[in-house]
Amino acid sequence: MPRQHKNDNFIDKTFTVLADIILKILPTSKEEKKAFYYYRDGMSAQSEGEYAEALENYYEALILEEDPYDRSYILYNIGLIYSSNGEHTKALEYYHQALECNSKLPQALNNIAVIYHYQGLKAANNKNNHISKTMFDKAAEYWKQAIYLAPNNYIEAQNWLKTTNRLNNKSK
């Protein structure tokens, strides 16, 4: 099961060693440990751009992981991969599943907003003003939620909300 690391740097190696030590001393079940190993290997593969391998590891981790908080991060990372591959519909599904497990995940809210904003820009470029407005309004609502949870983050989104007069309005 352990992944062969190709380009480990000092931080990656340190994280792996510390995680292994912590797993050995924490009172966790065999399944929880196995789920974490899959998750860790998925993160490693993802950071190297090995998305198929990362997805395999994340799906295995999902089978074993029961804790909703931990599952939310697995689902979020799956969403990241689909988003980076341009599969926005699938990415949205996984971001929403992550939020069902952990409603306080501002990065998932932000990424949902980014996808809706992108769709709004595409619609605007195609002169489809109704769809554009709808997508921008959806983006605004998700960014507001993300900013509420992490007020010091998402400065560009905060500026966009202000310049489009969506910060305090339900929608524009």
Automatic annotation (TrEMBL):
Membrane disposition: Peripheral membrane protein
InterPro entries named in the record: PSI_Ycf3_assembly, TPR-like_helical_dom_sf, TPR_rpt
PROSITE patterns: TPR, TPR_REGION
First and last residues of every TPR repeat: 35-68, 35-68, 72-105, 72-105, 120-153
Compartments reported by the entry: Cellular thylakoid membrane; Plastid
Major localization listed first in the record, in broad terms: membrane
Coiled coil feature spans: none
Keywords of this entry: Membrane, Photosynthesis, Plastid, Repeat, Thylakoid, TPR repeat
Family classification: Belongs to the Ycf3 family.
Protein name, as recorded: Photosystem I assembly protein Ycf3
